[in-house]
Amino acid sequence: MSVFKNLSTPPAAPKKPVTDTRHGITRSDDYAWLRADNWQAMFKDPSILAPEIRAHLDAENTYMNAAMADTKDLQKALFTEMKGRIKEDDSSVPVKDGPYAYGTLFVTGGEQPHYFREARDGSGRKLLLNGDKENEGKSYFRLSGLDHTTDHSHGIWGYDDKGSEYFTLKVRNLETGEDLADVVENTGGGGVWAPDGKSFFYTLQDENHRPSKIFHHLIGTPQSEDRLVYEEEDPGFFMSVGGSLLDDYIFIDIHDHETSEYRIIPTADLTAKPKLVAARETGIEYEITEGGDVFYILTNDGDAKDFKIMETPADKPGKENWREIVAHKPGTLLLNHMAYARHLIWLERKDGLPRIVIRDRRSGEEHSIAFEEEAYSLGLQGAAEYDTDVIRFSYSSMTTPSQLYDYNMVTRERTLLKTQEVPSGHNPADYVTRRVFAPAWDGEQVPVTLLYRKDTPLDGSAPCLLYGYGAYGIAIPAGFNTNCLSLADRGFVYAIAHIRGGKDKGFAWYEDGKMEKKTNTFKDFIAAADYLNQEKFTSYANIIAEGGSAGGMLMGAVANMAPEKFAGIIAAVPFVDVLNTMLDDTLPLTPPEWPEWGNPIDSKEEYEQIAAYSPYDNVGEKAYPPILALGGLTDPRVTYWEPAKWVAKLRDSTTGDAPILLKTNMDAGHGGASGRFQRLEEVAFEYSFAIKVAGKM
């Protein structure tokens, strides 16, 4: 029996067929009109959205609100619980850099971070940037950080006040707290100071929201006079700019999802032409970190699928001078690396679990940091100073709150700096975390991380929220999440399926979930549901699936492939209109995404591969479970019209009576609401849908 009762008639989007013929194949799209023709301008000024489109999205929101009206008290209760687990006046442990230590804090009731610094010994705290003050009067506001000059006199800070991820940069005098006249608009969100503090480098987003140009800005001059440093002409590549710990180099990082290229500028000559390190080769990735007179390069060159580390002279960084110092070990994926005066460190993952490895640069002696829990997460923060023996890392598990440590690489002493506080209380002994393995269709074993209360009955009766992502090589960590405790406390099993498309089990795990092998991602997720049903952790009638962005594509695919195995589906900013998006090379992420999904413009084979699974294109006449889709009007990554079109087509095609709901945040983009408590309200809404569908209200 449906838990949704007395619903009004849902909005019916008009059908206005648009045909498209590629490779001799003609398709018709009834809802193409929901894509705003002026989307580039609309991202910067949402008020110019076409009235017909806005009216439809508003009608969808009205219908969704009516369908979820009986969950308002539940949403409030969930929000109160989640908020109660957050230390409202929390503060980070400051990071030492020269005479100061820098950190962030929140104030009670505040939504945005405040940036501060204090003397290195911890005295004399000074507020540098009040995020709540900057947020005043704005429906959306997101800070991109505060980066200080080498002499600690000034800082660059950036903000996005529309959710479109076009960031404005300003320069603040850190002594007086006043902003200079400099305003740099349409950036990627950050800048890199030159060592003298008189100029900085930044990435400009073009009209199609692509980071295609690096500029050099001199303090006190207008943006129109900024010098173009480098322009990437291939729209298929992302670009960012960074700097070295020693302030010796500016790094220009150019990459797509499988290919890398670096160019460097010595800060001794800021006007120098960026020097190529190693020319891009399709499928070859590399990352650079400085180690004094050498660079350390993390790369998969030479069939090192799980990566290795090379060393090369900083003044002669070309590939002909690369020398291997950390060998490739199949099955042990090297994730990132950092270098300091006396140590080289890296984070690696084997059998789904991370560890930190430290090498003495003089002796070559190595040791590692690891933990014993069945499933856990490690974060390597490193240090802000080059000449140091102390680094910082974090540890947590599904049951263990996050712990922050300083680690002395010489003495191997761990110093616990902070344990995440849960003000409302948390007893890890009340919960169980497990790592189980679900057999996939081809014999692979899919890791699944579980969290549940130890008194939860494992007889198939427990509801389950099954989360998945599975794209871009992103691994989902088994870290502490206070929000999901609200589900566990209501008898849910909270599960994360570490499916192919991520790098949870190494680089091959990623390769087996992309391009022509993309359907492995979807089959793995269904295999996880099958295993949880078979082992009676839950049952098909009690599984609510959840995923966002590329994980939203996963939701759309499994809804088409196995709707009977899910009681409900939550798809946040879902990338469901894959074929149309990959055919539109004007969209922000389309060319850079071709190595991940395929290029259906040039290749008939890749067109057919995408067409075979693209959720929007494969909606059929079948009984779909209750579905909640969430979008953001100014989202440049997964445009609002993808979930809007998908919901319209689902509603027109389903043979069942389960509601299909669309919630569009008219004031936000890809990441949803920007404030920390606003975000909790969104999570509470999503969880209330899951609890309602599970019949546990």
Fraction of residues in helices? 10-25%
- Radius of gyration, in angstroms, nearest whole number: 25 Å
How would a crystallographer describe the biggest sheet? 8 strands, mixed
What is the average of the pLDDT values?
A: 95
Protein architecture, described:
The chain is of the alpha+beta class. It has 13 helices and 37 strands. A hairpin with a 3-residue loop joins strand 22 and strand 23 (343-350). The longest helix has 18 residues, at 676-693.
List key phrases describing it.
single chain; 697 residues; alpha+beta; 8-stranded mixed β-sheet; 7-stranded antiparallel β-sheet; 37 strands; 19% helix; globular
Layout of helices and strands:
Layout: E1 18-22, E2 25-29, H1 39-44, H2 51-67, H3 72-84, E3 95-97, E4 100-105, E5 114-119, E6 126-130, H4 131-135, E7 142-148, E8 154-160, E9 167-173, E10 179-193, E11 199-205, E12 211-218, E13 227-231, E14 238-243, E15 249-255, E16 260-266, E17 275-276, E18 286-290, E19 294-299, E20 308-313, E21 323-326, E22 332-339, E23 343-350, E24 353-360, E25 366-369, E26 377-382, E27 390-396, E28 403-408, E29 414-419, E30 431-439, E31 445-453, E32 464-468, H5 485-488, E33 493-497, H6 507-511, H7 519-534, E34 543-548, H8 550-561, E35 568-572, H9 578-582, H10 590-597, H11 604-613, E36 627-632, H12 641-653, E37 660-665, H13 676-693
Parallel strand pairs: 32-33, 32-34, 34-35, 35-36, 36-37
Antiparallel strand pairs: 1-2, 3-4, 4-5, 5-6, 7-8, 8-9, 9-10, 10-11, 11-12, 12-13, 14-15, 15-16, 16-17, 18-19, 19-20, 20-21, 22-23, 23-24, 24-25, 26-27, 27-28, 28-29, 30-31, 31-33
Helix pairs in contact: 3-13, 7-8
